[in-house]
Design brief:
It contains 2 helices and no strands. The protein is an all-alpha fold. The longest helix is centred in the middle third of the chain and has 114 residues.
Length: 142
């Protein structure tokens, strides 16, 4: 470059241009880049930590899901068994109910038969009482 001024100022000279360029260059840029890299590395570490925690959680959830499925299957088996036991018990109870009704009907039949026999016996006793009364009257009248 040529000199713009003939003075002792370095304005326009290569040295001046170099000085201006040096001033323009941000010397903090490498420091900023290093800081950004450190921040990014920290962020990456945190993300890796989060990923590890998430993997642990996912593993735990899968384990718990397996446990829940086993418990559900066990509960289903128990419910099925209880349902069949209830059904069997209902059948037995229904049979016993029919037997009791049959026995009650039989007892009612016997009671009806006894009532009829009692009515017949009462009538016979009344008839005998009348005969006895009649005979007494006859005997007293003699």
């Amino acid at each position: 470059m040529e000199l713009l001024h003939d003075s002792n100022d370095l304005v326009g000279s290569l040295d001046c241009e170099l000085k201006r360029l040096e001033e323009k260059i941000d010397t903090s840029l490498p420091v900023t880049i290093v800081d950004d890299l450190r921040r990014l590395n920290d962020e990456i570490r945190r993300l890796k930590d989060v990923e590890a925690v998430m993997n642990t959680v996912v593993s735990s959830v899968k384990e718990q899901d397996g446990t829940i499925k086993k418990l559900e299957e066990g509960a289903r088996k128990i419910i099925t068994e209880m349902t069949s036991q209830i059904t069997a018990t209902e059948v037995v109870v229904a049979g016993k109910h029919r037997d009791l009704i049959s026995k009650i009907d039989e007892i009612n039949g016997r009671i009806d038969s006894l009532e009829k026999k009692i009515d017949v016996a009462v009538r016979e006793l009344k008839s005998e009482a009348r005969k006895t009364s009649f005979l007494r009257k006859l005997l007293w009248l003699d």
